[in-house]
From TrEMBL:
This protein's name: PmbA protein
GO biological process, one term: proteolysis
Domain Metalloprotease TldD/E N-terminal: start-end pairs: 27-90
Gene Ontology cellular component terms for the protein in this record: cytosol
PANTHER family: METALLOPROTEASE PMBA
Length: 447
């Protein structure tokens, strides 16, 4: 995989070519990644995958017209042709009064703290196989597990470099390690499956493979012989591994492009309470070893920790340059970068732990459900209407009872957020971390 110096040099050369062909301004973003994964099933090698990829995206501006183009061909003649075509495309594009480079005075100056995103450890295929085998062996050893869908271990590296025609040129790299296992319990029509998976920037931050495999097996066995719950309005508790999806819906509605196009259920709610005052939503792009940590965004603006929701009150929108210009606001350092124009994304997110245990959170629930898995995409981003397939466990008289499946949970996100309560079981190992979350008065329906 290329190094940062090479990536920055390619970006700078491409911008220089674009300027020579008539671009008034330009930026170039280079990405590179490599990964290796080993999978096993029933004690035998299932697959070995090795992948590498590189690409560079050029965005040019001619007056108020712009165009974006991407390539993975770095031959001098190919880059020359790419720059020429990009400028020609921009000249033929309609004017866009909102697109442009980030304000020069707001560009990141390298003041972020060390993020420690790169691990020197580089496991070879033999080590990856041993870790996958250990995870699967532990999963299959759980009483009640009858089959395995396999286990895998992987390692990867990535690099992102950004250069602009008005003076920004920086890059950063990252690594990741991952282990996962999936098992089956029961037989025939009564089979159930579940999984466990963990990722980390550094190998030493991963749990032992045996712990991950054992958790996958225990989760599977706990789901055997599920019932279909009776319907009604009742409290729903979202387990941390699915509760993070609620944060995803909230942050998606805070994205500047959605606000600018008036396609968000949070319209006109900036500065108002959308969560109980006991709940914050915190973003920290500078978390050491964080899965979404980054020193700068896709347009060269610095990223900074902030409360997106402070004591229940929505603080504002997540803005790239274009959406900020449309709304008459300042960009917030949330630009994401792909092959085309910048989008919007958030960094590491979490809801802080509440003050009660999960046992206390459910203690007064006479009849409710604990959701541990969600399916489907039944969320309306404009209205906030929410309906998703689910499985999990009944809650009866304050206790977690038997497994349930084939039901839906439904409500409206604004009403759901207003009724949210948090337990104290927060663990910080995902990109979006939440404790168990209780929401009152949702509609549960068996299918």
């Amino acid at each position: 995989m290329i190094d940062a110096a090479t990536a920055l040099d390619r970006c700078a050369r491409l911008i220089d070519l674009a300027r020579r062909h008539g671009a008034d301004a330009a930026d170039a973003a280079a990405r590179a990644q490599s990964s290796e994964s080993v999978g096993v099933r029933l004690g035998k090698l299932e697959d070995v995958e090795r992948s590498e990829g590189e690409g560079i995206a050029l965005r040019v501006f001619v007056g108020r017209r712009s165009a974006s183009i991407e390539t993975s061909d770095y031959a001098p003649a190919a880059l020359e042709d790419l720059a020429e075509r990009a400028v020609a495309m921009a000249r033929a594009a309609p004017e866009d009064p909102y697109a442009g480079l980030a304000p020069a005075e707001r560009l990141d100056r390298g003041t972020s703290p060390p993020l420690d995103l790169e691990d020197a450890a580089c496991p070879d295929p033999a080590m990856l196989r041993r870790r996958a085998e250990a995870a699967e062996d532990a999963a299959r050893a759980v009483t009640g597990v009858t089959n395995s869908e396999g286990a895998s271990a992987s390692f990867g590296r990535s690099l992102f470099a950004l250069v602009t025609s008005h003076g920004f040129a920086r890059a950063y790299g990252a690594t990741y390690h991952a282990i996962g296992a999936s098992t089956i319990g029961g037989s025939g029509a009564d089979m159930q499956r579940d999984y466990a998976q963990r990722s980390a920037r550094h190998l030493e931050d991963l749990p032992a493979p045996e712990d991950i495999g054992r958790l996958a097996g225990e989760r599977t066995v706990a789901r055997l012989n599920p019932q279909i719950p009776r319907g009604g309005r009742m409290p729903v508790v979202f387990d941390p591994r699915v509760g993070s999806s609620l944060v995803g819906h909230l942050v998606g509605a805070m994205a500047g492009p959605a606000i600018a196009s008036r396609s968000s259920f949070l319209l006109e709610r900036e500065g108002t309470a959308i969560l109980p005052e006991t709940i914050d939503l915190i973003e920290d792009p500078h978390r050491p070893r964080g899965l979404r940590s980054r020193p700068f965004d896709g347009e060269g603006l610095g990223c900074a920790p902030r409360k997106l929701v402070d004591r229940g009150v929505l603080g504002g929108w997540l803005l790239n340059v274009a959406s900020a210009n449309k709304l008459g606001l300042a960009p917030t350092g949330h630009a994401s970068r792909g092959a085309g124009a910048p989008g919007v994304s958030a960094s590491n997110l979490h809801i802080p732990a509440g003050s009660v245990s999960r046992a206390d959170l459910i203690r007064d629930i006479a009849d409710g459900v604990l959701v541990t898995e969600l399916a489907g995409q039944g969320v309306n981003a404009v209205t906030g209407d929410y309906s998703r397939g689910a499985s999990g466990f009944r809650i009866v008289n304050g206790q977690i009872a038997g497994p349930i499946a084939e039901f839906t949970v439904a409500g409206n996100l604004l009403a759901m957020f207003a009724e949210m309560r948090a337990a104290d079981d927060l663990q910080m190992h995902r990109s979006v971390n939440v404790p168990s979350l209780r929401i009152e008065g949702m509609t549960v329906a068996g299918t």
